[in-house]
């Protein structure tokens, strides 16, 4: 039976892992699978390696919290994302030490205290072996296996790798010239960096109209129905012109729809506010200029993103793509 558990605070993520709660595991994948995938692939990995990082961190946190008291008083997002960065650093050092040395994990905003960093380091350093019979851990492993197919599916079967490579080579050989002619460099880079998810709380029947609209907009946005998301977010902003979350995701949707002037108006307002999405807005401002092949304006917005922001690693990778 799928749990209908509602997440009321960040500490419940750890409790949910210890309970192997389907709702909590699903929420973790929904919030962070794409981010971890972008982080790993942006630093020389592939989707399979991203899945391994995600799964290893979940199991490591479970094992550590199962044996030790782990009280999460910081936000779960920087806690989990920093753990994934550290895990990928470890894997990179095994796979490509030179590249691993150049990858420096950074605690995402709003940061972590020293105790939580110690939790992460200890969890990743501990051996991950089951302590006797642990039905809860086995249930968690089964959930993780199911989630891999959903979030990290590569369409690569055990007997199909060679044939897939042959097909890919043939496609590249036959269509590269046409692809380069029809699709400018900026479209490829835009698609490489533009993936994001609209984060929202679970909808409750007692919520007011604005919360319901945000819930509906998130569902549309996360399924790639950006026009529908824009219509719903328009209604939110009519009700509350200072709703920076709605304005940020409307701006992102407008960029994807190619309505760049309208998108930049939204994103600039978010960037000039105190919103937690301020630097995410700057990143999408940069991507909006990618769509116009304007490398200089793109770079100017990339340089506005500080090192302690959650989106800095993506900004750094985009800067490399621009050959700066």
What's the short story on this structure?
The protein is mainly alpha-helical. Helices cover 68% and strands 0% of the residues. The protein has helices spanning 11-18, 22-42, 47-67, 76-95, 97-102, 114-125, 135-151, 161-182, 185-193, 209-222, 226-239, 244-256, 260-271, 278-290, 295-302, 312-321.
Structure description:
This protein has 324 residues and is mainly α. The protein has helices spanning 11-18, 22-42, 47-67, 76-95, 97-102, 114-125, 135-151, 161-182, 185-193, 209-222, 226-239, 244-256, 260-271, 278-290, 295-302, 312-321. It has 2 domains: 11-151, no CATH class; 189-198 and 206-321, Serine Threonine Protein Phosphatase 5, Tetratricopeptide repeat (Alpha Horseshoe). 68% of the residues lie in helices and 0% in strands. The longest helix has 22 residues, at 161-182. The radius of gyration is 21 Å and the shape is globular. The model is unreliable at 1-6, 156-163, 176-187 and 202-207 (pLDDT under 50). InterPro entries: TPR-like_helical_dom_sf. The chain crosses the membrane at residues 162-182. Keywords: Membrane, Transmembrane, Transmembrane helix. This is Tetratricopeptide repeat protein.
Defining traits:
single chain; disordered N terminus; mainly alpha; Serine Threonine Protein Phosphatase 5, Tetratricopeptide repeat; 2 domains; 324 residues
Overall structural domain count: 2
Radius of gyration: 21 Å
Which structural class matches the secondary elements?
mainly alpha
Strand content: under 5%
Shape: globular
Low-confidence stretches: 1-6, 156-163, 176-187, 202-207
- For the secondary structure, the number of strands is 0
Question: How confident is the prediction overall: mean pLDDT?
Answer: 82
Report the major sheet. Answer: none
How many angstroms separate the termini?
Answer: 51 Å
* Amount of helix: 55-70%
Number of helices, counting only DSSP H or I runs of 4 residues or more: 16
SSE order in H/E notation?
HHHHHHHHHHHHHHHH
